[in-house]
Specification:
Helix content: over 70%
Number of domains: 1
Distance between the termini: 16 Å
Number of helices: 16
């Protein structure tokens, strides 16, 4: 846990990511009509923004249900509302701590209660993230088959292909653990790893024997992905765009995959660039394509602050800080 937090907060890596994001943002602004972008944001139909905010809040509930399903593998009896509080906490930390994953490790570690250990909680969060990304990939592929003409767009196809290849590689490693563990480098890592890390790896690999739980989590995750896509679509309506929903079903998974690349600060810059390149081909103006990520950033800010307040108001100190004895 401490190793993961140190890795995520490495100052040099954070500085490089901020620099890369800053260069992308400046390049986009230099080639755009800044006044037009500002006017698009100012003239937003805030009724759509509020609806999008509510839809995103619903997505938090559904995502919590996915996490609860994954925790059921450990015979967890942790209540849904308690897990939702921790999900709210993760939104807060993910927004304000560089990397966008610190909150997930924190909620995974703090969910330890009764049968669930810290390593099991973190493992459930890692699997939760993987399934969440996988559901976006599946949704994007379905969207491609619904609109085959978009295959002519190389950037989108490249992003989906790269994400799919990564998921396939992860799946092969996961299902052929013995061959993976026999690798000399992996053996040395395992020998150097502490007991907590080994317990974490065992918890992650253990999901292989729980196909029903994985299927249920994936089904719920697809619903979550659709809700998130709908949220972006509503933001586009807020800025006056008339791009059809099918393009969001295809493009948002691509943008999500790109924003996960560890080369920028929480996807900043990459997300905006992908919006301009992809949605510009669907008829969206450059001002609108840049305004949507800005509105999305504002929405994340509101959700993270609301999540932090919910956690503070409904927190249960005795349950949240209980540590399993060694």
């Amino acid at each position: 846990m401490e190793f993961a937090m140190r890795a995520m907060s490495h100052p040099v890596a954070t500085l490089l990511k901020l620099l890369f994001s800053g260069v992308l943002i400046l390049a986009l602004l230099a080639t755009s009509n800044i006044v037009g972008v500002i006017n698009t944001v100012v003239n937003t139909e805030y009724s759509y923004f509020i609806i999008s905010l509510v839809v995103s809040f619903i997505a938090m509930f559904v995502a919590t249900l996915r996490w609860k399903i994954l925790l059921s593998r450990f015979d967890s009896e942790i209540g849904f509302l308690h897990l939702f509080r921790l999900t709210c906490l993760s939104y807060f930390y993910n927004f304000f701590i560089p990397g966008g994953v610190a909150g997930d490790f924190i909620r995974g570690y703090q969910c330890q209660q009764d049968q669930v250990t810290g390593s099991q909680g973190v493992a459930s969060v890692v699997v939760d993230r993987i399934i969440g990304l996988g559901s976006f990939m599946v949704l994007g592929i379905i969207g491609l088959f619904c609109s085959l003409d978009t295959l002519r767009q190389p950037l989108m196809l490249g992003l989906l292909s790269a994400g799919s290849i990564c998921l396939v590689i992860c799946g092969c490693v996961y299902h052929n653990r013995k061959k993976f563990d026999d690798c000399i480098v992996i053996k040395k890592i395992h020998q150097a790893a502490g007991q907590k890390i080994r317990q974490f790896l065992e918890s992650v690999y253990g999901y292989k024997a729980y196909g029903r739980i994985a299927f249920q989590a994936m089904t719920v995750s697809l619903i979550t992905a659709l809700i998130n896509v709908l949220s972006f679509y509503l933001l586009s309506k807020a800025v006056g765009s008339h791009v059809e929903l099918i393009y969001f079903i295809i493009f948002i998974p691509c943008i999500t995959v790109a924003s996960y690349l560890p080369i920028s600060y929480s996807g900043l810059g990459i997300r905006e660039l992908c919006f301009v390149l992809l949605f510009g081909q669907a008829g969206m103006t450059r001002d609108q394509a840049l305004a949507i990520p800005i509105m999305y950033f504002c929405m994340l800010l509101v959700l993270s602050l609301v999540g932090g307040v919910i956690f503070l108001i409904f927190s249960r100190p005795a349950a949240l800080h209980r540590v399993e004895p060694n």
